[in-house]
């Protein structure tokens, strides 16, 4: 079982981010870590996007609007993370929206405009101490999407998930905006009552410890030393 991080009064509070494709289990793991380590949870704004269902029905027509909405919401979340004086965790990152989903959804002229705005906004936002990339095969993603029962997601074609997976793997292999670790989840059960959270949690704890976190079991709020 992973110990919980020591509070270091002179250091800034932990900023942890979970990344990964649709259906991989980001929200499930984020809630578990928030509860286990007493982190402030800043969740992915899925239900609030008024363009998302329209995008799935007609990607070319609604891609730009949907991606701008997500960009605005993610910037808002990252700004909120920067203001918080407690340790926090984000479900999906600003980087994924811009460097994977927007790139896949937008035409070249649209992405050039979007990219200029994205790069400007990044200059004013906090950087996560660690990005945890959860990956899974297309078959695993499709199975998890069906099991969680979001109606608007059930029509997502496997070809789209596979395309995003290729973008994700390329992105993770060259990502330098923040420290990143990749965890393969194909053989992990993150959804049942007895989900294999500890294996993932231990891997994250090891990566954070390498960055200077201390791990006695006496406290609940992680901070960098």
How is the main sheet built? Answer: 5 strands, parallel
Helical fraction equals 40-55%
Number of strands: 5
CATH superfamily caption = P-loop containing nucleotide triphosphate hydrolases
Any idea what the radius of gyration is?
Answer: 17 Å
- Taken from the alpha-carbon principal axes, the silhouette is globular
Mean pLDDT over the residues? 83
Q: Which CATH-level-2 architecture?
A: 3-Layer(aba) Sandwich
Secondary-structure-derived class: alpha/beta
Unreliable spans are 5-10, 214-225
Strand content: 5-15%
Number of domains: 1
* Biggest sheet strand line-up: 2-3-1-4-5
Mind telling me the CATH class? Alpha Beta
* CATH topology grouping: Rossmann fold
Question: SSE string, helix = H, strand = E?
Answer: EHEHHEHHEHHEH
- Count of individual helical segments: 8
Separation of termini? 22 Å
How would you describe what is shown here?
- The chain has about 220 residues and is of the alpha/beta class.
- It has a single domain, classed as Rossmann fold (3-Layer(aba) Sandwich).
- It is built from 8 helices and 5 strands.
- The longest helix has 25 residues, at about 60-85.
- The two termini are about 20 Å apart.
Write a brief caption for the model.
The chain has 225 residues and is an alpha/beta fold. It is 50% helix and 11% strand. The protein has a single domain (15-210), classed as Rossmann fold, CATH 3.40.50.
């Amino acid at each position: 079982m992973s110990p919980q991080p020591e509070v270091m009064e002179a250091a800034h509070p932990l900023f942890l981010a979970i990344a990964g494709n649709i259906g991989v289990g980001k929200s499930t793991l984020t809630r578990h870590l928030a509860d286990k380590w007493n982190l402030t949870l800043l969740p992915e704004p899925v239900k609030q996007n008024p363009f998302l269902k329209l995008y799935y029905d007609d990607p070319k027509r609604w891609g730009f609007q949907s991606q701008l909405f997500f960009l605005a919401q993610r910037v808002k979340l990252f700004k909120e993370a920067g203001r918080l004086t407690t340790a926090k965790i984000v479900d999906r990152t600003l980087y994924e929206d811009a460097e994977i989903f927007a790139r896949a959804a937008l035409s070249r002229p649209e992405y050039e405009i979007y990219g200029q705005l994205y790069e400007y906004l990044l200059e004013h936002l906090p950087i996560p101490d660690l990005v945890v990339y959860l990956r899974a095969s297309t078959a695993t993603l499709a199975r998890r999407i069906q099991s969680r029962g979001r109606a608007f997601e059930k029509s997502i074609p496997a070809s789209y998930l596979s395309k995003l997976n290729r973008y994700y793997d390329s992105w993770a292999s060259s990502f330098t905006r923040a420290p990143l670790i990749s965890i393969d989840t194909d053989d992990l059960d993150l959804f049942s009552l007895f989900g294999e959270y500890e294996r993932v949690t231990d891997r994250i704890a090891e990566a954070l410890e390498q960055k200077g976190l201390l791990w006695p079991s006496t406290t609940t709020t992680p901070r960098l030393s």
